[in-house]
Amino acid sequence: MTALLFLSCLYRTGEVLNRKDGALVILKDQLSEIDIDQERNLISVTEGDAARVEIKRRILAAGRLATRESSRASGRSIIFASAIATPLVAFALYSQIGSPKIESQPLASRASEIQKAANLSELTQRLKTRLEADPSGGPSDGWVLLGQTYMRTARYDDAADAFERVTVRDNVDISTLLLFAEALIAAENGIVTPQAESVIERASEMDPDDPGPIFYRARILEQDGVPEEARALLIERLKRADRAYPWMELFLSVANRLGEQVGETPVTLADLIPDPQDARGPRAVDIEAAQDMSVEERS
Prior knowledge:
Layout: H1 7-11, H2 21-39, H3 45-63, H4 74-98, H5 107-133, H6 140-152, H7 156-167, H8 174-187, H9 194-206, H10 211-223, H11 227-240, H12 248-262, H13 269-272, H14 284-290, H15 295-298
Helix pairs in contact: 2-3, 3-4, 3-14, 4-5, 4-6, 5-6, 6-7, 7-8, 8-9, 9-10, 10-11, 11-12
């Protein structure tokens, strides 16, 4: 469900933070490192593929981030830099030492990796402490990235707490509300709780046409046992689009899955949009990142 967390960013490209070109370079370097780790048998083929998908998603998101001036003080910039790096480091460390599928490693090697994991945990705690000590309550971006770190290490309750810090602020956006909702859902093993539903409704009120809240509303309808209504909600939003957007493939995939349950014929983008090929579509960096990804990987 990772792609859902970027739906609002893709829809609202003018409302997100800028990432420097160097971020794309770092992410591409991460792809190369995965190949190296796989050759050294530090990670399995399955975990390598999963890591590649995660990084490609980040490339897609970074390629769409809008430009915005930053007036943060240097101290907060350090917090942001640490927080941005933490999720990637956490994912890489888990791929190398956290999976039960990895073969046993020499004691010295595992000791080194365990120490790295301990250092990561310490850095994460240090980041949280600095955010809590900030007289202004800590920058929203810092809390969001801390929450994303917790999500990738399966600390869903902690992630929800971090995201909630931002959702009570006046400048909260739809993307952060959806992150909070996803953390709440993950903490309940995929069940959309009343609290998560309330957060999704709040996001929907901010912009009823935003695809992110609509997707989650469809998820709620499916959970309530009305897949035909969930499918209809997704199809209706697809029909209202003025052109092709990246989130449409995810909508189509889920709509057709729901359609199978109620005996509906599968639909394609061409059925809903006269000319789905849009000249303003994904840029070269997006195409490069997504060319090897299946629909399942993007969801």
